[in-house]
Amino acid sequence: MMFRHYLDVFPKIFIFLHMFPIVTASPDTKRLLNDLFKEYDNVIMPKIRHDEVMNVTVRFIPRGITDFNEVAGQIAVAMGVDIRWVDAYLSWSPKEYGGLTHIVLPEERVWIPHLSIANPSDRIPIFPEDPFSVRIFFNGQAILIKGGTVRCTCKPNLRYYPFDVHSCNVKFINLDHVFNEILLIPELKLDVYENYGEWDLFDSVVDSNLFDLFSCAVYKFKIKRRPEFSILTVCIPILCLGLLNACVFLIPPECGERISYAITVLLSFAVFMTIVSTVMPKNTDPVPILCYVLTLMLAESGILVAVSILGLRLYYKPEDQKVPEWLERLVTTFITFQTAPKPFSITNEIAENDERIIDKESNRFDKHIRWRHVGHAFDCLCFVVSFCSFSISVVIYAVIVMIS
């Protein structure tokens, strides 16, 4: 079995060596390296005059947003950074070295500007454990390209959740030298960026400023949430619960399930408050408008429980207690605006048990209004008020989000 395994491996090794032959350094390259690094020291900044400012171009190449934690205020960006500077000690004439125009060296062999993150969430240096190579050209131009994922702090703005937009920054600085020694020149390249996941990048700006005594390259960008998932899992259930909240007054008092139904809706709102609080920062400023809407609906649900109890008490009041005249007039006026012949009947079963109060010939109401009629009128009024308050709150929230 071992011999058979070797027979399978040897052809693969043979093919690999012919497709990718081992490249050895040419004599010109060896001679160039010996000449360049005879007196080269990678801890000394490579500039001719000590009082001149070295310009370092930092090109930020974002690949995508891998994560944005609104609760912790952290954003993770998959990116590359293209760092370019001129090394005055590493220049040569290509004619003297067989036309050799550039060489590639490990970064520990040459001096490089060590970049750090000015607004880190975990580590300050960028990719300290990953080795990268530096490409050196004959005129001293050095190019170092690094890549990986950086994590920065970003203050969330959840006012219009789930249609929220956040402004985040990625700041690069060089902590080894102050601003009159190294000047960072920011550039931005979005050719390889892809919108994937929950967040989309739709605006970006570069800037250069000072971070204390250090030059700082700032990359500002705005991200917005893709709201489809949040709408399906948060907004639509809240709308359904708000609609069911108003429907408590459509349940016939005789069935005996009105109070349990109202309490169930109230507890459902409380559960959704807990779910929404898990995706919101504890000290968010400003507070999401959706939280105000949800709190308003929760308070309305609690009020409707109390109002439902009051409606049942009115409906089941003893018939020997006379309805006050002012209340009798109000109920009669309310019934007058009903177009159906039995305005305060919820179901046919209840209508058959109720005394007929509308005269078919004169369309006038019986003067004797009973408490169950008062209860039916009270339920209709409460349903209209609760449904209108729910609709108004939803419309106001939608208008605010659309205007923003």
Question: What does this protein structure show overall?
Answer:
The protein has 404 residues and is of the alpha+beta class. Helix content is 36%, strand content 24%. It is built from 8 helices and 10 strands. A 6-stranded mixed beta sheet has the order 3-5-6-2-1-8, with no helix packed on it. Strands 4-7-10-9 form a 4-stranded antiparallel beta sheet, with no helix packed on it. Strand 1 (54-69) and strand 2 form a beta hairpin. The longest helix is centred in the C-terminal third of the chain and has 33 residues, at 371-403. The radius of gyration is 37 Å and the shape is rod-shaped. Mean pLDDT is 80; it is low at 1-24 and 339-366.
